[in-house]
Write a structure and sequence with these properties.
The chain is mostly helical. The chain folds into two domains: about 20-80, Helix Hairpins; about 90-190, Iron/manganese superoxide dismutase, C-terminal domain (minor pseudopilin epsh fold). It has helices at about 20-50, 55-80, 90-100, 105-115, 165, 170-180, 185-190; strands at about 120-130, 135-140, 150-155. Strands 2-1-3 form a three-stranded antiparallel β-sheet. A hairpin with a 4-residue loop joins strand 1 (about 120-130) and strand 2 (about 135-140). The longest helix has 30 residues, at about 20-50. The chain is globular.
């Protein structure tokens, strides 16, 4: 039993994101779902055949993190889009942001600055349940850079495929469009 790509076509028509950009991005995401299933199936077959000492098994185990996180991070990203970008300043999430960043504006400045850094990757607002704290983080590769034990709350894709078709190299303009379309209720639901 494998994973099935989710349908995010409801995002088509979202301001600041062309239909072509979104459809390309959905296709890329679907590839991660397909490859996650293929890698998991192959690993299962190798386990059944007793072929777990091979270099191929080891490399596929490593590859699974890339495909899996490529699938899941895109799901988080698409699911925290489609809103009006207006955070309820009286919500639990806004309260935690204000507590941990001293103001909502300081959090937003830090999140935007993290997303604007040179390089490809992801920007994430994480919640550390053990430490009861929010913080922004950069993820350079799908399978590396995730703080252990932390839950992603808000995800922004800053690989070029997320914006270059519509914005060229103007990442700041893409980040502006992202902020105008955040679904804050979806983000808040991730902190429980």
């Amino acid at each position: 039993m494998g994973y099935t790509a989710k349908d995010y076509s409801k995002l088509i028509g979202m301001a600041g994101f062309s239909e072509a950009l979104l459809k390309n991005h959905f296709t890329l995401y679907q590839g991660y779902v397909t490859n996650t299933n293929k890698v998991m199936d192959t690993l299962s077959q190798m386990l059944e055949a007793g072929n777990t000492a091979s270099p191929e098994f080891a490399e596929l185990k490593r590859r699974l993190g890339w495909e899996w996180n490529g699938m899941r991070l895109h799901e988080y990203y698409f699911e925290n889009l489609g809103g009006n970008g207006q955070a309820d300043q009286n919500s639990k999430l806004a309260g935690l942001i204000k507590r941990d960043f001293n103001s909502f504006e300081k959090w937003e400045k830090d999140f935007r600055a993290t997303g604007a850094m040179r390089g490809i990757g992801w920007t994430a607002l994480y919640y550390d349940e053990s430490g009861d704290r929010l913080f922004n983080s950069w993820i350079g590769e799908h399978d590396a850079g995730h703080p252990a034990g932390c839950s992603p709350v808000l995800i922004m894709d800053v690989f070029e495929h997320a914006f270059i078709l519509d914005y060229g190299l103007k990442r700041a303009d893409y980040i502006e469009a992202f902020f105008k379309n955040i679904d804050w209720k979806a983000a808040e639901a991730r902190i429980g």
